Amino acid sequence: MNAKAGALPDINVDEFRKVVRSRRSIRRFKDEPIPQEILNDCLELATLAPNSSNLQPWEFFVVKTPELKAKLADACLGQNAAKTAPLLIAIVARPDTWRDHARLALEEWPETKMPSIVDKYYRKIAPIHYNQGPFGVFGAAKKAIGLVAGLSRPVPRGPYSVNEMKIWATKSTALAAENLMLALRAHGYDSCPMEGFDECRVKKLLKLPRKGLVTMVLAAGKRAEDGVYNQQYRFDQSRFVHYL
């Protein structure tokens, strides 16, 4: 183990299991606010999620103002979760911030000496890897080169287009969203990730960045007694888990 990382803390897997198993998509919430210090901690834990190249392609727009929250709930198709939650969080993927974040990765490196491989990656490799160029011409060229090079050796396959960059950002943002939901549950609060919303209206209402992608709108708060609609179940693991 890397000595710089320090000793690992003791982990109680039973407590973690309780957090995961008790997390449910809550459809009705109590009229009880989440304390700001708890919300801050949950958002910090969200941003500790693993993400591609540590470029952190996400943003969180926390809506607490009653009037704005009511309008956002309407844009979420009037779902009970959206209408009853004390706050709503628009979780937005940012496929367009990689360049600024590559620069920040160099400026905010936390150790005294930066490894040359890190410096090279953010200064030279990332600008080539993620840049799609005007009208996607760089991406198309990289894809052609990758197809030829890939005939003889393993090569990274993309992102090769603006759409693939959207997928790239959304994958990391979804990991952060899961961290946020588990953090809320660990603090005794609950959430409901909603995909049912009018993205155009949400972006206009919250004045979101033009290239931002609303991955989900998260309702958060204390679950009401009738907040869980059905018993939880999952299909048999044999359908999904494959040992090779």
Structure overview:
- With 244 residues, the chain is an alpha+beta fold.
- The protein is 43% helix and 11% strand.
- It is built from nine helices and four strands, in the order ααβααβααααβαβ.
- The chain has helices at residues 13-22, 36-46, 66-75, 80-84, 98-107, 116-129, 137-149, 162-186, 199-206; strands at residues 58-63, 87-93, 190-194, 213-221.
- It has a four-stranded antiparallel β-sheet with strand order 1-2-4-3, sandwiched between helices.
- α2 packs across α8.
- The radius of gyration is 21 Å and the shape is globular.
- Pfam families: Nitroreductase (PF00881).
- This is Nitroreductase family protein.
- Residues 20-222 form the Nitroreductase domain.
- InterPro entries: Nitroreductase, Nitroreductase-like.
Quantity of strands, as a count: 4
The proportion of residues in beta strands is 5-15%
Helix content: 40-55%
Distance between the termini: 29 Å
Instruction: Give the strand order, joined by hyphens, for the main sheet.
Output: 1-2-4-3
Mean pLDDT: 96
Q: How many alpha or pi helices?
A: 9
Low-confidence stretches: none
List the topology elements:
Layout: H1 13-22, H2 36-46, E1 58-63, H3 66-75, H4 80-84, E2 87-93, H5 98-107, H6 116-129, H7 137-149, H8 162-186, E3 190-194, H9 199-206, E4 213-221
Helix pairs in contact: 2-8, 3-9, 5-6
Q: Which key terms come to mind for this protein?
A:
single chain; 244 residues; alpha+beta; four-stranded antiparallel beta sheet; 4 strands
